[in-house]
From TrEMBL:
Compartment list: Cytoplasm
Pfam families: RecX_HTH1, RecX_HTH2, RecX_HTH3
Protein task: Modulates RecA activity.
Species of the source: Zobellella taiwanensis
Primary location class: cytoplasm
Domain RecX first three-helical: residue ranges: 12-49
Gene3D superfamilies from the UniProt entry: Winged helix-like DNA-binding domain superfamily/Winged helix DNA-binding domain
Record keywords: Cytoplasm
GO CC annotations, alphabetized: cytoplasm
Family recorded in the similarity comment: Belongs to the RecX family.
The name this protein goes by in its record: Regulatory protein RecX
Entry's Gene Ontology BP terms: regulation of DNA repair
Amino acid sequence: MEPNPTSASPWDTALRLLSRRDHGRRELAQKLRQRGFEPEQIEQVLDRLEQQHWLEESRFAQVQVRQHLLKKHGPRRIRAELQRKGVAGADIEAALAAEAPDWFELAARCYLARFTPAVRLELKERARRVRYLQARGFEPEHIRHALDSFPD
């Protein structure tokens, strides 16, 4: 049973949230604000968590990149999601570089997971498949590779 938010300190609440999974600074601050804690308290707690290395943007970015790769998301989508969560561009690029995925191979696997390769595709169907890969966050060259690897 979760403690009553009015009786729990921001420190205890932050630790409980971090014990479940990594959070980014912005995300954790938002959750603490939603629980009614004062902005000054939140900043102090976040600073202390960072000093003790319990809250690290770089680790959060790496975990998020790995999770997105497991979902077969492309680089555009991963960058957009991490930017939305407040992760700095340098941390995003470092996490992507650390994982160093083969985007072409990932796009092809994503394509095969969703579609059956066909000898001939009508223009409308090909466009639908391209849109699917675009929505997954792949770059145009990755999409071309995926479709051309399995001729239509």
